[in-house]
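NADP-dependent glyceraldehyde-3-phosphate dehydrogenase (Papaver somniferum), 498 aa
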Amino acid sequence: MAGTCIFAEIYDENTNVYKYYSDGAWNVSSSGKSVPIINPTTRKTHYKVQACTQEEVNKVMESSKAAQKLWAKTPLWKRAEMLHKAAAILKEHKAPIAECLVKEIAKPAKDAVTEVVRSGDLVSYCGEEGVRILGEGKFLTSDSFPGNERSKYCLVSKVPLGVVLAIPPFNYPVNLAVSKIAPALIAGNSLVLKPPTQGAVAALHMVHCFHLAGFPKGLISCITGKGSEIGDFLTMHPGVNCISFTGGDTGIAISKKAGMVPLQMELGGKDACIVLEDADLDLVAANIIKGGFSYSGQRCTAVKVVLVMESVADALVEKVNAKVSKLTVGPPEDNCDITPVVSESSANFIEGLVMDAKQKGATFCQEYKRDGNLIWPLLLDNVKPEMRIAWEEPFGPVLPVIRISTVEQGIHHCNASNFGLQGCVFTRDINKAILIGDAMETGTVQINSAPARGPDHFPFQGLKDSGIGSQGVTNSILMMTKIKSTVINLPSPSYTMG
């Protein structure tokens, strides 16, 4: 069970509240308050976490700053060694962490285990990649620029930024946390984690794995609490030197307040799937199911709108409907394909999009059905641009189909969105695929496959309101460092001797 065995010290048995992590120890907040975590399936409080104060945030920042100075002097190979150790511990204890994911965010049990294992692999890969790219620098000579002689040597190296604030989302609270933690640590930074409320307990368990690996006191911190009380205080704190955020509209507000702090942000998408007449419709249907309905559509890279050529639309909708009918619906403990969405407010938002589409004449391929936070999978055909579902991100198991008469119409709809995370195109003609992909204003285009963030070492970025900067192991490591130049000034050009 979560909170037992090696994880016992992260739980306060006197109050039944999970502790927060700072200065190498598990602590109870002086606020005396807690934040409830609602089980999406039962809609009842399942866990509680500490409601930390602003003063506790200040103390965390002080210890983070001090720890980072020492950590930056730790040999690169030693940093990597410790990441490998943390990864092994994380994978060894995948079961209790996965259990938290099932209870907190209704992630199907098998997918919860996969997330933890994938996270361990990411941490290990980060250690290996960091040793390679951080161990390299540049050597420049002044006489390569016009008008200069060889009187200056420039040594270029990568140095850490300082304190990195990491804010992951509810849907991958472990994987998207370590995708920020591991690059920050290998690069020589300290790390302050503010986990999402739904997913906080899984994140605390994950942090304990780093604690068990023996990282120095103060280097890693995990602050829990209400965003209304410590959210802005954290993101605007003068001790923060970098912010890595994954989530929704909150990121736009953070970017406006962050000032000169480097930002890495992924803020969602309305990923379009363009289907041409010559596409393999069986392949398309399989990818629409995987891309649109896995984890109940609660993924930034989920297929969010299908733009299909009219001539093959009927055939494609028929194939997708046949697969939708086979999706299992129910609790995450039973490994169902469709599980409850994360909160009642999310379910209400999704229902609002569905009702708007119904009022405006969309074709319902299945009966709309909801029980609490559980929404049955729904394909909406003949969706028109005036419907909200054509543009807004449902983050649920509801997928709109828009029939198009030209490829240009599909590209236009994709590019008219304020999002630009990923998109995909299905065709047997590689020339068309490349031309369409180049025209789509998205950070990534998938050819003959549904959108996906991974593998985790691939670059991952969005355009427009979908984000700032690029992620992926290498890009994250580089983003969490800065260039430092050391210039050696010679008394005379080097080639005058001898």
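The radius of gyration is 24 Å. Residues 192 and 283 are 42 Å apart (CA to CA). ok done for today
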